[in-house]
Design a protein that fits this description.
Layout lengths: L5 H8 L4 E5 L5 H14 L6 E6 L2 H14 L7 E4 H13 L11 E3 L6 H7 L18 H8 L2 E3 L3 H11 L1 H10 E6 L7 H12 L3 E6 L14 H8 L5 E5 L7 H11 L13 E6 L3 H18 L8 E5 L2 H10 L4 E3 L4 H5 L2 H14 L5 H8 L6 H16 L5 H12 L6 H12 L1 H4 L10 E5 H4 L4 E6 L10 E2 L8 E2 L2 H12 L2 E10 L1 E3 L5 E3 L16 E2 L1
Parallel strand pairs: 1-7, 1-8, 2-3, 2-6, 4-5, 6-7, 9-16, 9-19, 10-12, 10-13, 11-12, 13-16
Antiparallel strand pairs: 14-15, 17-18
Helix pairs in contact: 1-2, 2-3, 4-7, 7-9, 11-22, 12-13, 15-17, 16-17, 17-18
Bound molecules: adenosine-5'-triphosphate (ATP).
The site of adenosine-5'-triphosphate has 17 residues, from helix 2.
Length: 540
C-alpha cells in the first residue's frame, strides 16, 4: 500500500475542477485512480466518470490499474477522446440533426473523394468552431451521414457542435457522467480543450492532468499551451503540482531535470546511474555490445528478467533494425496495418486478436467495451460463445470468426483493409508479436512515443545523433545549423530517460545510416552538450 505524499494527498482531497501538473513518475496515474475511486463511491450504477487517455494502450493500462483498486467502475467510460466523441456523442445524437442511416461506416478523411476533401477541408482548420449562424457548414457531413458514412477526423468538431446545440445530449451527458479526467493534457487539441471547458460549465467535475515537458505530439496539432492556459489562466481550475519522481534513481532525475532547466537544483548524492557510450560502428556493433553486457548489468542491478530492460529509439526503422541485430530474445513493437487504421472497427479487431493470442485478455473485456447498452442476457451468451471461437479456431477460419463477432456487436464492419491487416498478423512473426503476451525473457524494443507511461529497470536510449535527435531543417540558401522543433525533440529525449528506474545508457556510435541508406560517419546528438549536464553522467 502506497503512503501518499502531502502533495499527492492534497490533490486527492480536492473535490472540484483542477489542473494537476506532474513530473514523470510522480504518481499522477496513482492519484487519478484514487480520485476516481472516491468519485464512484457516491454514484448510481448508471453513472460513472469519463477517464480519457491519449492512446488505447494507455487507456487499457489505466482501466487495468483502476480495476485492481476499484471493484465496480459502474458506467464509466475509459478510452481515448476520439472514441468518447464517437461512441457517446456522434453515434447517440447525430440523428437529431440528420437522417439516421441503417448502418454507419467510419472512414478517414483521406478516403473521401478528392473534391469532397477540398470542399470539407475548412472543417479541419485549427481553431475552427461552428457558430449558430454557420449551421449550414455541416450540410455535407449530414448528407454523408444519412448515406451511412462518417469521417473520423470530424468527430471532435461535430461533437462540440452537438454538445453545444443539443439539449438532449447535454441532459444525457450530465445525468450519466459526474466527472471527467483527461490524462496527458499537454497533448490536447483545440476542440478537446473547448469540450473539456464546456463539460465543466455543465457542472461535471473536470480534472486535467499533464506535464508540459512531456509534450511530444505537436506534429499532430496537439499543444501544451492548453495545459498551460488552464494552469496559469484566470479560471476556476485550481492548480496542483506533483514534484517528486518516485520512479527514477535520483541521478536520472537530476540529468532529466537539467535537460529541461539547466539551472535547477540537484538532488544531493554521489551515485551516478546515467551512462554515455559511443560504440565504434553502428547498430550491428551496438547490438553485440548490448548482448555481451546484458548479464553483468542484470547481476549488478538485480534485474530478474530481460523484459525489465528496454531499448528505445526515435524511429520505427531503428526498432526493426536493432531487433534484427540482437542475439538476445527480444520483442520489437512495430506499427502494423491494423494499428495504423485507428478506426473503431480496427480497434475491436485488434482487441479480438489480443484475446486470441493472449490469455490475459478476457471475452468479458470485449463485451464490456463494445456491446451496446441494453444487450440482453441471451445476446451476451451468444456473443461470448462467438468470441470464444476467435481463440479456438484455426488460422483459416479466423477471418470468418471475427466477422461473426463484429456482426453480433452491430455498428462494426469487416472490410478488405481489415482482412489485409488480419492476414499480416497471421503471416508476419514480427507483427504477431504485438499481440502475444510479454515473455519475461524478451528485451523490449519500441520507439519513444510508444514508451510513454511505461517504466523499466534499465533503458538503452538509441538514435542520439546529430540530424536524428534533434532533427534539423535546411531552409533554402542557409547553411546554419537549424533544429526542427527542438523543444519537442528535447521532450522526446526527456520521456525516454525518465522511463528508467535504475539505470540508463545514452548510446551513440561512430556511424549511422544516412538518408541514402548507406552507413556514414555520425556525430553525437547536440543534446549531450547542453549546459548543466557536466558531472551528471559517467562514460562507459
Ligand atoms: N507516494 C509514493 N510512494 C512510493 N511510490 C510511489 C508513490 N506514488 C507513486 N509511486 C510509484 O511511482 C511509480 C510511478 O507512478 P505513476 O505511474 O502513478 O506515475 P506517473 O506520474 O503516472 O508516471 P509517468 O507520467 O512518468 O508515466 C509507480 O511505480 C508508483 O507505484
Amino acid at each position: 500500500m502506497i503512503q501518499f505524499t502531502e502533495e499527492q494527498q492534497n490533490a486527492i482531497d480536492f473535490p472540484s475542477n483542477m489542473v494537476l501538473t506532474a513530473c514523470p513518475g510522480s504518481g499522477k496515474t496513482t492519484v487519478v485512480i484514487e480520485k476516481i475511486a472516491i468519485d464512484l463511491r457516491g454514484m448510481k450504477n448508471f453513472q460513472g466518470v469519463i477517464a480519457i487517455s491519449h492512446t488505447n494502450k494507455a487507456s487499457d493500462e489505466l482501466l487495468k490499474r483502476s480495476k485492481k483498486f476499484i471493484v465496480d467502475v459502474k458506467s464509466s467510460f475509459f478510452g481515448t477522446i476520439d472514441k468518447f466523441f464517437l461512441r457517446e456523442i456522434v453515434l447517440n445524437f447525430m440523428s437529431h440533426f440528420a437522417c439516421r442511416p441503417k448502418s454507419l461506416k467510419i472512414i478517414k478523411f483521406n478516403e473521401l473523394l478528392p473534391e469532397q476533401q477540398t470542399r470539407m477541408l475548412f472543417l479541419l482548420s485549427d481553431g475552427y468552431v461552428i457558430l449558430k449562424e454557420d449551421v449550414n457548414a455541416l450540410n455535407e457531413v449530414y448528407t454523408l451521414y444519412s448515406h451511412g458514412v462518417f469521417v473520423l477526423e470530424l468527430a471532435p468538431l461535430v461533437s462540440l457542435f452537438i454538445l453545444t446545440y443539443s439539449p438532449a445530449c447535454q441532459r444525457y451527458i450530465k445525468a450519466k457522467y459526474k466527472s471527467i479526467y483527461i490524462d496527458e493534457y499537454q497533448d490536447s487539441g483545440f476542440i478537446q480543450h473547448e469540450i473539456f471547458k464546456l463539460l465543466s460549465m455543465f457542472g461535471i467535475k473536470a480534472v486535467a492532468v499533464g506535464d508540459a515537458d512531456q509534450s511530444i505530439h505537436e506534429y499532430a496539432k496537439k499543444n501544451s499551451k492548453y495545459l498551460i492556459e488552464l494552469k496559469n489562466g484566470d479560471n476556476e481550475f485550481e492548480p496542483f503540482e506533483l514534484t517528486i519522481n518516485h520512479r527514477c534513481h535520483y541521478s536520472i532525475v537530476n540529468y532529466a531535470s537539467r535537460l529541461i532547466r539547466p539551472e535547477c537544483t540537484l538532488i544531493a548524492g554521489d551515485d551516478i546511474q546515467v551512462y554515455r557510450a559511443c560504440i565504434p560502428g553502428y547498430f550491428e556493433e551496438i547490438a553485440s555490445w548490448i548482448d555481451s553486457g546484458l548479464e553483468s548489468i542484470k547481476n549488478s542491478f538485480k534485474i530478474k528478467h530481460n523484459n525489465q530492460i528496454a531499448i528505445l529509439t526515435v524511429s520505427n526503422k531503428s526498432v526493426s533494425y536493432i531487433s534484427s541485430c540482437l542475439k538476445v530474445q527480444n520483442r520489437a513493437y512495430v506499427d502494423d496495418k491494423l494499428s495504423k487504421l485507428g478506426t473503431d472497427s480496427s480497434r475491436v479487431i485488434i482487441d479480438l486478436l489480443h484475446y486470441r493470442y493472449n490469455n490475459n485478455h478476457t471475452a468479458q473485456d470485449i463485451i464490456d467495451n463494445y456491446s451496446e447498452a441494453g444487450i440482453t442476457k441471451q445476446q451476451i451468451k451468444v456473443l461470448r460463445r462467438e468470441i470464444n471461437l476467435v481463440r479456438k479456431i484455426d488460422d483459416n477460419s479466423l477471418i470468418a470468426s471475427i466477422r461473426g463477432v463484429l456482426t453480433l456487436l452491430g455498428d462494426y464492419n469487416l472490410e478488405s483493409i481489415h482482412v489485409d491487416g488480419i492476414n499480416e498478423v497471421l503471416q508476419v512473426d514480427a507483427v504477431r508479436n504485438n499481440y502475444l503476451p510479454i515473455n519475461q525473457n524478451e528485451v523490449q524494443i519500441m520507439n519513444i512515443h510508444k514508451s510513454k507511461g511505461l517504466e523499466f529497470d534499465c533503458v538503452y536510449h538509441l538514435d542520439l545523433y546529430d540530424h536524428i535527435l534533434p532533427k534539423r531543417e535546411y531552409p533554402v540558401g542557409s547553411r546554419d545549423v537549424i533544429y526542427k522543433n527542438e523543444k519537442q525533440c528535447l521532450n522526446l529525449h526527456y520521456v525516454a530517460l525518465t522511463r528508467a528506474k535504475k539505470f540508463v545508457v545514452l548510446v551513440t556510435s561512430t556511424e549511422r545510416i544516412g538518408s541514402k541508406g548507406y552507413r556514414i560517419p555520425a556525430l553525437p546528438s547536440q543534446f549531450f552538450n547542453r549546459a548543466g549536464l557536466e558531472n551528471l553522467f559517467k562514460k562507459l
